[in-house]
Amino acid sequence: MASSKLLSQPRWFRFLPRNLSNVRLFSDLPSQLPVSEPQNSIESKSNNRFSKPSSTPSSLKEPELAKFSAIADTWWDSEGPFKPLHIMNPTRLAFIRSTLCRHFGKDPLCARPFEGLRIIDVGCGGGILSEPLARMGAAVTGIDAVEKNIKIARLHANLDPTTSTIEYCCTTAEKLVDEQRKFDAVVALEVIEHVADPAEFCKSLAALTVHEGATVVSTINRSMRSYATAIVAAEYLLQWLPKGTHEWSSFLTPEELTMILKRASIDVKEMAGFVYNPLTGRWSLSDDISVNFIAFGTKEN
Amino acid sequence: MMNRIVARNFGSNVYRLRIPWRPFSNDAASNLSSSNAGNPTKEGEGQQYDIAIVGGGMVGLALACSLASRPLTKHLNVAIIDSNPALGRNHFIKKEDLPDPRVSTVTPATISFFKDIGAWQYVERHRHAYFDKMQVWDYTGLGYTKYNARDANKEVLGCVVENKVLLSSLLSCVQDTDLQKKIYPSRLTSMSILPNSSSLEEDSTASETVLFTHGRLAKLELEDGHSVYAKLVVGADGGKSRVRELAGFRTTGWNYSQNAIICTVEHAVENHCAWQRFLPAGPIALLPIGDKFSNIVWTMNPKESSEFKSVTEDDFLKAVNHALDYGYGPHPTSSLLGNGDIFSWFKGDITMSAHDCFEVPPKVAKLASERMVFPLSLRHASDYASKRVVLIGDAAHTVHPLAGQGVNLGFGDASTLSNIISEGIAVGTDIGEVSLLKKYEADRKPANVMMMAVLDGFQKAYSVDFGPLNILRAAAFHGAHYISPLKKSIISYASGEHRLPLFS
């Protein structure tokens, strides 16, 4: 684990806008981060404040629901449409493991370091993140807006006594906030690029986190490079993802994400990027947040 | 399901459910307990383990020791299935026992693996022989190569240890650890991988309960009637692996039309060097075991091997000395190609062993064990891993013994597999997932295949008595002897340091 690398401050941080200056990056290497002004487009997205009376939640966009419903059956087919997610999964878990172990003071050499922690997986899909978290000892709740996903997730989790304790609900973060649920760690990976109002979504995530709890959000950066890789290459050339899975305009830059999390009282402490090596076919954690990145923050106030 | 509702109501504590075998159980709630997922459930059906190692030989036990030595895997529950009665009790090897003819040459890489898992201290209590010199030549007398560990800045080239010593050391080592293990003294008869969710369509509670307890597991049925359930089945059951057969792995390979005779012999003097002479029908190797004993591995065609097995001891010893010494051809001299001047333009200092003259191996005085004959073959499984099943050791690959590499490849497999399992557990992976096991395969397969190709190449190159080829071989001997980078590379590769034989 690169836990020792995470403790060192990057040398270039004073050139960044203030909102990222507290963030420790994955290692000490200088980064080629594009310094862009946070755009005003976030404010214009704050519609859909009302919730529809049907079961569709307020924060997720309608076409997104339909997209995911269509391929729900293939969640656990590691060679199917979700293959890139399956391959990326261990890398995301490595980041979550190292940050949460450090934050909660757990022994990283323990096989079940998350014993006693309540974790919620927002946008759990078929449960590919929830199940490993449960195996690591956490009390996991998985929520998703697509009913089919929850059914698949429950079915798959029931096959193993360790993961059968996962609580799956077809609901949204907002509804759980209304129910006043609280969790030690709130994890929302690859979700925020699909929601209609990222700022409200982050506020819900923060409301679900206990005081001094952890929030982990991952998404895709809105940069030229991510357009080339995540849209053109992944959807059209390599066909890793179905066309139209992502809309480039709904990606967030790390600064934007940090800012909206800050407004929701979440202090982003660490950030890392995922890099794919086409020769080995493996993902690894790195400093490079220009395409996929993940942020770990804590709730202060 | 009622059980899950009950679980949710227990707030922030984590409970792992232990579901009784009977469906529609009303006292499911009372059966909740915070037991580890890996503990064997004592219900009637069969015991459940994290890993079932089929085959308690050297490689299978090495895997168990390696798992026991890592912090992330030492809590795993392991079943070892092997009908060998020696596993059930710790039989003591007496010092005065004559060396068993079945020995292995362990490379420095294996020695450091053993030290990591804490098993080498047990080996050191019994007979074992380090050697730091090796001489290789053939019957044509045109060339020879002497290797010295110092050429590659090492202390030893390897260590020769009897297989029974390795086995009992690994057994003692694993028994001294806290690893939860159970030895099943039986044989595997059948194996099935229980279905996963994609094939599940029915909604009946009965089948749900079955899948709930044993949903994503492999079920092993043993000869004595026991059933064992495991998340991962490791096939470490040797060249005729039953696991490999039951899991449907295809193999490629061929039988060499050669058998190997092995026996222990005694000299009048101590022997600290390993000797290998390539004869027309196959190589004869003399390996030091310690206390003036050596081990002979003599490869020859099947007809000759049955003859040599049945001749008298004296005749056999005469034949061995003949094969090691003047028989079949003259001794090589060092002056054929001008003492290495021709290679002096290669960069790098000449290794010290390049100046060593050809030596005659020590005469064999006495036969100290029975003569055993084994057929030789090459076999390789097309895949090492599939859902919930993985192969290690001879079950995955069988090689020619001419370089003493076979079991070392197996130990390398065990080390890599336990590393991969540890990494998988660190991120909460199900250890029977194919994607995890394929990482092991991607790591070991290229190295193993490369080694097999090299050994097979040697075997073929040295089985032919053909003028120009003999000269080529002699040139190869000289090259290996005098070109230091090549020699260092050969020594490093044979020591297990590098997985691929390139200049690196």
TrEMBL record, chain A:
<keyword id="KW-0830">Ubiquinone</keyword>
<feature type="region of interest" description="Disordered">
    <location>
        <begin position="34"/>
        <end position="61"/>
    </location>
</feature>
<keyword id="KW-0479">Metal-binding</keyword>
<keyword id="KW-0999">Mitochondrion inner membrane</keyword>
<keyword id="KW-0949">S-adenosyl-L-methionine</keyword>
<dbReference type="GO" id="GO:0031314">
    <property type="term" value="C:extrinsic component of mitochondrial inner membrane"/>
</dbReference>
<dbReference type="GO" id="GO:0061542">
    <property type="term" value="F:3-demethylubiquinol 3-O-methyltransferase activity"/>
</dbReference>
<comment type="subunit">
    <text>Component of a multi-subunit COQ enzyme complex.</text>
</comment>
<keyword id="KW-0460">Magnesium</keyword>
<comment type="similarity">
    <text>Belongs to the class I-like SAM-binding methyltransferase superfamily. UbiG/COQ3 family.</text>
</comment>
<comment type="pathway">
    <text>Cofactor biosynthesis; ubiquinone biosynthesis.</text>
</comment>
<protein>
    <recommendedName>
        <fullName>Ubiquinone biosynthesis O-methyltransferase, mitochondrial</fullName>
        <ecNumber>2.1.1.64</ecNumber>
        <ecNumber>2.1.1.-</ecNumber>
        <ecNumber>2.1.1.114</ecNumber>
    </recommendedName>
</protein>
<feature type="binding site">
    <location>
        <position position="193"/>
    </location>
    <ligand>
        <name>Mg(2+)</name>
    </ligand>
</feature>
<feature type="compositionally biased region" description="Polar residues">
    <location>
        <begin position="34"/>
        <end position="59"/>
    </location>
</feature>
<keyword id="KW-0472">Membrane</keyword>
<feature type="binding site">
    <location>
        <position position="92"/>
    </location>
    <ligand>
        <name>S-adenosyl-L-methionine</name>
    </ligand>
</feature>
<keyword id="KW-0489">Methyltransferase</keyword>
<dbReference type="GO" id="GO:0010420">
    <property type="term" value="F:polyprenyldihydroxybenzoate methyltransferase activity"/>
</dbReference>
<keyword id="KW-0831">Ubiquinone biosynthesis</keyword>
<feature type="binding site">
    <location>
        <position position="123"/>
    </location>
    <ligand>
        <name>S-adenosyl-L-methionine</name>
    </ligand>
</feature>
<comment type="function">
    <text>O-methyltransferase required for two non-consecutive steps during ubiquinone biosynthesis. Catalyzes the 2 O-methylation of 3,4-dihydroxy-5-(all-trans-polyprenyl)benzoic acid into 4-hydroxy-3-methoxy-5-(all-trans-polyprenyl)benzoic acid. Also catalyzes the last step of ubiquinone biosynthesis by mediating methylation of 3-demethylubiquinone into ubiquinone. Also able to mediate the methylation of 3-demethylubiquinol into ubiquinol.</text>
</comment>
<keyword id="KW-0496">Mitochondrion</keyword>
UniProtKB/TrEMBL annotation, chain B:
<keyword id="KW-0560">Oxidoreductase</keyword>
<dbReference type="InterPro" id="IPR018168">
    <property type="entry name" value="Ubi_Hdrlase_CS"/>
</dbReference>
<dbReference type="GO" id="GO:0106364">
    <property type="term" value="F:4-hydroxy-3-all-trans-polyprenylbenzoate oxygenase activity"/>
</dbReference>
<dbReference type="GO" id="GO:0016712">
    <property type="term" value="F:oxidoreductase activity, acting on paired donors, with incorporation or reduction of molecular oxygen, reduced flavin or flavoprotein as one donor, and incorporation of one atom of oxygen"/>
</dbReference>
<keyword id="KW-0503">Monooxygenase</keyword>
<dbReference type="InterPro" id="IPR000689">
    <property type="entry name" value="UbQ_mOase_COQ6"/>
</dbReference>
<keyword id="KW-0285">Flavoprotein</keyword>
<dbReference type="GO" id="GO:0071949">
    <property type="term" value="F:FAD binding"/>
</dbReference>
<keyword id="KW-0274">FAD</keyword>
<comment type="similarity">
    <text>Belongs to the UbiH/COQ6 family.</text>
</comment>
<protein>
    <recommendedName>
        <fullName>Ubiquinone biosynthesis monooxygenase COQ6, mitochondrial</fullName>
        <ecNumber>1.14.15.45</ecNumber>
        <ecNumber>1.14.15.46</ecNumber>
    </recommendedName>
</protein>
<feature type="domain" description="FAD-binding">
    <location>
        <begin position="49"/>
        <end position="322"/>
    </location>
</feature>
<keyword id="KW-0999">Mitochondrion inner membrane</keyword>
<dbReference type="GO" id="GO:0016120">
    <property type="term" value="P:carotene biosynthetic process"/>
</dbReference>
<dbReference type="InterPro" id="IPR051205">
    <property type="entry name" value="UbiH/COQ6_monooxygenase"/>
</dbReference>
<keyword id="KW-0831">Ubiquinone biosynthesis</keyword>
<comment type="pathway">
    <text>Cofactor biosynthesis; ubiquinone biosynthesis.</text>
</comment>
<keyword id="KW-0830">Ubiquinone</keyword>
<dbReference type="Pfam" id="PF01494">
    <property type="entry name" value="FAD_binding_3"/>
</dbReference>
<dbReference type="InterPro" id="IPR002938">
    <property type="entry name" value="FAD-bd"/>
</dbReference>
<comment type="subunit">
    <text>Component of a multi-subunit COQ enzyme complex.</text>
</comment>
<feature type="domain" description="FAD-binding">
    <location>
        <begin position="370"/>
        <end position="448"/>
    </location>
</feature>
